[in-house]
Amino acid sequence: MRALFTSRSKHDYLSDALTLLHGWTRDGEQIRRTLVMDDSQHAALTERVKVVADALRLRPDISRRDTETRIRVGHGDGEPLTEGEVLLAARIEDAYRAVTAD
């Protein structure tokens, strides 16, 4: 079952989830994060994210510019964010902490 974050019944669950994901910002139907890391950390992060994204059948957009890794999760084509996409963002945070802890 896929839970969509379009209902505004009593709580905005997407906003609640994003408050737990420090550094992520909402941009329409996408969430974004910019991380400062070196090239080897970027490569390690990308590999870890690929494993999780494949399991969730999602495709985050990951790009590199200078010392920054930029990540976008979500469709951006009018489709609302899903629970899986928010879960992917949380797993990206876990991976980021793991690759920068070394």
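Above is the first protein from milestone M3; the second protein from the same milestone is given next.
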Amino acid sequence: MMTVPGAERAPADELADHRAAAWAAQRAHVAENSVFYRTLWLDQAPPERLEDLPDLPLSDKSQLRVAQAAHPPFGNYLAAPVADAVRLHRTSGTTGQAMNLALSARDARITAAVGGRCQASAGLGPSHRVVHCLNYRMWMGGLSDHMTLEETGALVVPFGVGETDLLVRTIREVGIDAISCTPSYPAVLERVIAERFPGIHPRDLGLKLGLFGGEPGVDDPAFRARMMETWGMQARNANYGVSDVFCNFAAECPHDTALHFMGMDVMHPELIDPDSDDVVPIAPGRRGELVLTHLIRDCQPLVRFRTGDILEIVATEPCACGVTGFRFRVVGRSDDMVVVRGLNMFPSMVAAVVNSFAALSGEYRIRLDTPPPYDRLPIEAELAEGAQTDGLAEALAREIKARLGATAEVVLLPHGTLPRTEGKTKRVIRGYE
């Protein structure tokens, strides 16, 4: 069993039989071959209906880490012979110990197909020449995301990270008009252009489409406006995924900046309250932690896996683009949430305020030097080049108080103080750990 062609545009009732058949095969596969889940479920049989999945306990990343440490290299949730694995990836490790990910040939093909839907939804197609600037060194974002770009029919240039001078020259020489990277990577390019390519501005490179993923930031209207002003390109949230589950299964479209869920034929999504674990309906305006179950996965199938991502559902009716999956925004990660006097603060919320100040570069950190509780939100914000500091810290603190409700303790840093990263940028620094 494989993906359903055009599943992202199929009504739910048309996918119902496929999803039921896929789960029937998958539940048997997991129950028979995953020691991890048999142990977690106390040998209880998984339910026959997807609607009854909440009868099973949740699984999470901490459990997988323990399983891999005890049963290296893939953990005892590997449900296929090692010989069936044709590719090994590793997670970025941004939120903890890096994990080894095994894919069968079928797993890899499905991963590419689902991710291709997302890249196409964001506007990439056969007429484009796209340079892929994510780390190819084992990370899912490298080769697997490269394959999703190829699914659109675009000409894909596998560049990776590093050698930024060569990247600038390649973009100009090859006539590249699209880039796939993290939202923070254009800042790296801007610095290199300013320092080593006198007389050239980012707009001169001719990039028209930015396909972003791997970290938050694209939801911010100020970020999109800056990309258009500085680069002359449309910024699209094209690559939302959870490495342990699928590298890319949601993206925006030209009609709506919310992420569209595009993997209903291969995954079953749930929302839960991250504190009580109670199921939350997937309905407009509701918020909860995303929980995913593989419907088709050979090597490392996951059932009721807590992603740690907090979602807010925007809409459930079909989009004008034709995609039928629910639309959502990622509010933040449960492990990046900082509680200030009972208010839940996420980095994406802080970013929206920081980016509204032209005198700031957009780079910031939330630096926590002591364990909770917190009565203030400590923020380090970097100045834009040549910006004046008079009253700026106080103005930022006032705006955070007005928009987020939290009292902020703002420290301004000189331009260029905070590192620009080629990979994921960690915004919350817990110095006490």
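Note on the second protein: Residues 154 and 421 are 26 Å apart (CA to CA).
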